[in-house]
Design brief:
By secondary structure, the chain is an all-alpha fold. The protein has helices at 7-18, 24-36, 38-53, 66-118, 121-138, 140-180. Helix 1 packs across helix 2 (24-36) and helix 1 (7-18) runs parallel beside helix 3.
């Protein structure tokens, strides 16, 4: 097969024809040339076969149930994330409650020990006076707080210790209730 001398010009016309941009005059010139030139006719045939490969085809949708499966997986991921945050909230809440419980327990023990060590009224006044002198070195706020706490212990010591013990029991009961009824526990009816 011989090579066409005007190949460049007619290759451009063939490209325009494939794109639908060739006017009627150019189309007639291309058809006349294709009738007489076997090299350009072979190139035109190859371009037409190639154009068939690039013809638009129908869009294929996703398989049945694809959207449902994706939504289900997203919901499962959201549930896992929600459970993780619930677990972290429960853990931090439990640790906070446990810390408050331990602090209240230590305060109760300290209060009971202090109450049993105080002795009679004159000894309490001497101790309050000594604490007041120490607090005076720290300033008026410390002195006022010392006098207030000493007076508070003298007047309301037993009821305060009792209230502190009741509060401690309430904290312990709340902590136990939260621990037993936590999410994921077999006893709470949700798992």
């Amino acid at each position: 097969m011989q090579r066409c001398e005007q190949n460049e010009r007619f290759s451009e016309l063939m490209s325009l024809a494939q794109d639908g941009l060739l006017d009627a005059k150019g189309r007639r010139a291309l058809n006349r040339h294709l009738a007489t030139c076997p090299a350009c006719r072979a190139e035109w045939a190859a371009l037409e076969r190639l154009a068939i490969l690039f013809e638009p085809s129908d869009m294929v949708g996703p398989p049945l149930g694809f959207a449902v499966r994706v939504e289900r997986r997203l919901a499962e991921k959201a549930k896992k994330k929600h459970r993780l945050f619930q677990g972290l909230a429960l853990l931090t809440g439990s640790l906070s409650l446990a810390g408050a419980t331990v602090a209240a327990l230590l305060l109760t023990i300290w209060g009971l020990a202090a109450w049993s060590q105080m002795g009679d009224l004159s000894t309490v006044q001497q101790r309050v006076g000594a604490v007041s002198h120490i607090a005076a070195g720290m300033g008026l706020v410390g002195k006022g707080a010392s006098l207030f706490l000493g007076d508070l212990l003298l007047r309301y010591g037993p009821p305060l210790v009792f209230l502190l013990a009741v509060g401690l029991m309430a904290l312990a009961a709340t902590w136990l209730w939260l621990f037993i009824g936590r999410p994921g526990s077999r006893r709470n009816g949700y798992a």
